[in-house]
Amino acid sequence: MSTSEQLPTATLESARDHARSQVGLQSVTAPTVPSTAASNLPEGIEASTVVWDETIGSGNYATRAIARGTHIRITDLDGGACIALAVHRADHTPERLNVADTVKVQWQAYLGTGTLLLSDMGRVLMTVVDDTAVGHDALCGCLSPAAASERYGDGSASGPTPSTRDLLCLGLAKHGLGRRDLPPIINLFTSVRVDEDGSLRLGDGGPAGAHIELRSEMDVIVTLASGPHPLDDRDEYSASTVRITAWRDGLPDAATDPFRTTTPERRRAFENTDELLRGRT
Amino acid sequence: MSGTASTGTVVLDETVPARAPWAHPLLAGQSLRIVDLGGNQAVDCLFFNLANTDERYSAPDTIAAQRNIFLVTGSTLLSNEGNPMLTVTDSTCAHHDTIGGACSRESNTLRYGHHTFHQHACVENFLDVGSRYGLTKRDLVSNINWFMNVPVGDDGTLGIVDGISAPGLYVEVRAEMDVLVVISNCPQINNPCNGFDPTPIEVVVTDPGPA
């Protein structure tokens, strides 16, 4: 990057002064540090409870380990977002989001409020507790390097049109994970419908300001990347700016939590999760 | 070999018992035919790049590229890096599933109750045979379910329903790169994917031979 007034950098001292002079420059896409300084929070949320506030732009990613009982709200700032979401159990990453079990166990391909994000161990990683988006796609996965290269000329993470897969892999790498640790993911803010003959249709993008709110039921690593949907056949690399805001809220009493008992399958997923946590405390 | 003989030299012709796993390399150009001997037998299947198992079959890449959830004759099976791994060259079963995933002890408890936890399941087969090739739980992803029927309704309701296969129907794939084939001959007895009666399958590998 360059500043408007280039300072000399020939000596160690001047180079240090030059580096330090850059602090205070603003970027639309960055984490808020400390997160407790975040503003424009959802109604009723105290800044002191915020543990993660970050805005990511088109072709970028963010990742964070968050504790059980954290709410995470993802807001589409531009409209028409497609945000790839990967979720791993923080203390044992081979357990992770399983999209096939998520749709099969809940007998529902389309995600919304009440949907549980299930791990491959029959447990709940996260619960969708609020949702104003047009839909979320659990079928089409993230844009591969080969598809991004074919469509936009360059799918590399170092280029202007990175593949969502490479972005997510970078996020996972920050936790010591490799490319084999990225299973199929969910595309937030995109509506994909299956016709009777099995064909897939991508619906129109959603409005600016739409959000989804998830509650973590275990300590999890959340990794998000903003890139085009695999079914997006527009020529230009279309992706949105999104804001991630997470706050510590605790979990409701299990006996009165409305999300635990909506179906027998979901009830048992929480029973399995409780069983794991019971053995650990 | 059951069904119409493929061209080329048969290099392997085995029966995989009911409930059992199977794994074998399939080299570029070779074909694998899977025969549903008893009818309506789900065959859970994964493919790995033999030279770099980080690259493996990707259900989402495959269905997004063909814009259809069903695998049929002509489907190209893509990897998680977006590369063609295999082609479905022939299928006498109308279509196959790749969104329903594999049964596991754990998911069985959600679908059928905690009492099913000790029943054998496809993930057990994948882990068992995969471990002999250096694969672990980290390597399991959404798989193919040959001969399994998973429709999606207008409202998004999705589930495993009665099969559309029959005794002797088969599917054949041709490897476009050297792959490791990993199969679980599904042991599930709580849903109709095996007609509530798991049965053996036949696997046949053919080599195209000299041009």
Report on this model:
The complex is a heterodimer of chains A (281) and B (211). The N and C termini of chain A lie far apart (48 Å). In chain A, the strands form three sheets. Chain A has a six-stranded antiparallel beta sheet with strand order 1-13-3-11-6-5. Chain A has a five-stranded antiparallel beta sheet with strand order 2-12-4-8-7, covered by helices on one side. The mean pLDDT of chain A is 95. The relative contact order of chain A is 0.23. By secondary structure, chain A is α+β, with helices and mostly antiparallel strands. Chain A is built from five helices and 13 strands. Chain A folds into two domains: 7-36, no CATH class; 46-277, no CATH class. The radius of gyration of chain A is 20 Å and the shape is globular. Chain A has helices spanning 12-21, 99-105, 145-152, 164-173, 264-280; strands at 50-56, 61-66, 70-76, 83-89, 116-118, 124-131, 136-137, 186-188, 192-194, 200-202, 211-216, 220-226, 242-248. With 211 residues, chain B is an alpha+beta fold. In chain B, strand 5 (76-78) and strand 6 (84-91) form a beta hairpin. The longest helix of chain B has 9 residues, at 122-130. The model of chain B has no long low-confidence stretch (mean pLDDT 95). The chains are: A alpha+beta (281), B alpha+beta (211). Chains A and B meet through helix 2, helix 3 and helix 5 of A and helix 1 and helix 2 of B.
